Amino acid sequence: MASSSKDVTLRSSRQATASSSRGSNKEAMPSGGPVGGVPQNGSGFKRFMFKISEKVGSRNKTEYSAQFLEACKEMEKYKVVVDDLCLRILGVVQQNPRFIPQPLGKMCIEPPPNEAPFEGLSVALAEIQPFMDSKYDLSKQQGISDKLAKLQREFLERTRRCLHHLRTFVSEEYLNYEQLRRDLERSRQEMDFSKHELKNAKNAEQIQAKNMVYERASKHFEEQLQKVNSFLEQFPTLRESHYKDVLTFFFYEKKYFDDCAKILKGG
């Protein structure tokens, strides 16, 4: 998916021997803390200036393939669509926006006790009954409200279960993908910086040391790239599971309204 050159031209063995004999003049390779298990090389200032030069385009950097970038773009566009889909489904089920979490997260949309519509109606009927004449018995209507309230709470919880794969994608899987992309970009920067340091090595000893750092950074980059690719390869499977979630929701939505109609009809 990404290309990088590892061709390094070593100096002559005569120069290497002469360099190794000058023990007091050896230049130690600077090192920093590890990034993803890969030792960093170069001072913080040099690394900072290297990143700036990358941003302004004065240095070449490892480019990802067009296929890889397109796959990432498709995944990111899909996340926007999934967010909108989940928000609209939850808006159908829970029509009080106060109880729709932002961000969606675990999608817990159940209201507190007695704040669901039919629960509130049942409470109101019970409170007004003492003020009514005996011929205006609201116990039947209160019983219907109690049944509808129970049915609605069950539907709210069932909707959340129906959207299990969508919920997991929003609250966990896509966040993991974003972290993988950040890790990949850091490893790419580390590899490119190591390559830059290798090209600017001044003697055979530095070339050997910096080449080892570059090889480790390159290996780490390839590992991170493979992790992102592995996630992207799951995309068709994820979409299929999300499609099934939506179908399951519509099945239980129809069942909910059918059950509500039976309660209202049966009284």
From TrEMBL:
Upper taxonomic lineage: Eukaryota, Metazoa, Ecdysozoa, Nematoda, Chromadorea
Designated name of the protein: BAR domain-containing protein
Keywords: Coiled coil
Transmembrane segments: none
Listed Gene3D superfamilies: Arfaptin homology (AH) domain/BAR domain
Pfam family of the protein (one): BAR
Organism: Steinernema carpocapsae (Entomopathogenic nematode)
Biased composition (Low complexity): 11-23
Start and end residues of each BAR domain: 45-265
Gene Ontology CC annotations of this record: cytoplasm
Coiled-coil intervals: 170-204
Region (Disordered): 1-40
